[in-house]
Specification:
single chain, alpha/beta, eight-stranded parallel barrel
Length: about 290
Amino acid sequence: MSKPKGATATTNKATKTLRVSVSPWWQIAAGLAIAAGLVGRARRPVRRVAHRGGAADAPENTLAAFRGAATVGLGTWELDVQLTRDGALVVFHDETLDRTTDGAGPLAGHSLAALQALDAGAWFGAQWAGERIPTLDAVIALARSRPGGAAWLLVEIKSPHLYPGIERRLLAVLAAERYADRVLIMSFDGDSLARVRALDPALPLCHLTGEAVPFPRRPAADAEVLGPPWPILALNPLIIWAAHRAGRQVYTWTVNHRLAAVWLRVCGIDGIISDRLDLLRALREA
């Protein structure tokens, strides 16, 4: 999860400090949200989401990462998809290859064969050398075989402005794999979400937002789920209450601090996305 192109440079973990003055209104809002959260806590499940498979524990967006999440019992995985030159959907976060592979330059324009020749694991540690950039099909196959039941996938459409037709291709893969009933489609790009909605009105959507627009009055494509960064919700839990009043859920990213996760759960959050598998395991899923 990261901000869209053109925003401030992103980091792997969203831990920015927000400059917000705490007025009596915020204190009242927080109190209301706490009360609502405590009342509903016993009956509201919290979905624990392994961000890029668990980016603190294994090379992100690789089969090794998703296997690690499955091994510790986590059944919801977040991942990013981009489109190769020859029409394959690959699971990869950055627009460029430099940070997490031994390649360089933009991912766009590469064939699947060229991308899968790269090492996507050695950057994280020698024991991960040889991990490859997986296709979405391969991740779905792994998700389907997860002990305890098929995993849920939160699929973020990355940089759709670079990949005309990526939404149609994504839906085609989900249909071919018969996996559309276990996904949530996510994007910062409202136009991309609108295209998904037009192609398949039944697919659930999540409108990801940054610090600038934590709670749009009407999410893009009338998305069922809001996805703001966690510091905004920690400071103003009333956003969660308002989303629930509007019939929507709230998933937040990227929560790598245990106290933040506990606080957000008290406030009634629906989904917590984290790099840390240990943090997610510690949150008992209702």
